[in-house]
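Below is a filled-in request sheet from our internal design queue. Each sheet records the structural input a requester submitted and the sequence that came back. We keep these sheets so that new team members can see what a complete request looks like end to end.

REQUESTER: design group, bay 2
PRIORITY: normal
MODE: inverse folding
CHAIN LENGTH: 144
BACKBONE (tokenized):
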């Protein structure tokens, strides 16, 4: 299973904000520090803000800050929110699979997907931004 680009960006934004020091970084600052297009990151930031995981202030002195809810957010919940809860394979698409009604693989893949999410559920944003990752995140942030 490969995460969507938006899921990857969401997790990296949360990690970056978890170690933020000094003035709040702007979406543009974070995009430059992560070497990703601003427009892509802006969409992810808007979704994270909608989820209540970060706060965004506009104008002078504005920027992004991680909310308390964001610090304690489950990585599994964030991944589920961005990935959706659809099946790993599309058995009912434009050309439905003829095995669909009796397929055991689909059930096995669903169980594996749930196990993947469940393994991420107890891990928080604070956990994934802890040392040694935190120091590296700060170093990258200062470089831009």
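RETURNED SEQUENCE:
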């Amino acid at each position: 299973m490969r995460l969507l680009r938006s899921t990857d960006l969401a997790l990296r934004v949360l990690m970056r904000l978890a170690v933020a020091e000094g003035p709040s970084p702007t979406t543009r600052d974070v995009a430059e520090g992560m070497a990703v297009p601003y427009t892509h990151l802006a969409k992810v930031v808007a979704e994270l803000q909608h989820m209540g995981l970060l706060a965004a202030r506009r104008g002078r002195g504005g920027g992004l800050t991680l909310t308390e809810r964001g610090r304690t957010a489950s990585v599994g919940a964030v991944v589920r929110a961005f990935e959706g809860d659809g099946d790993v394979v599309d058995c009912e698409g434009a050309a439905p699979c003829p095995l669909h009604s009796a397929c055991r693989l689909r059930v096995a893949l669903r169980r594996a997907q749930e196990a993947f999410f469940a393994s991420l559920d107890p891990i928080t944003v604070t956990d994934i931004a802890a040392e040694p990752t935190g120091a590296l995140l700060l170093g990258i942030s200062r470089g831009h």
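SHEET NOTES:
- The helical segments are 5-18, 27-34, 38-50, 68-72, 75-83, 104-120, 125-128, 133-142.
- Strands lie at 54-57, 63-66.
FILED BY: M.R.
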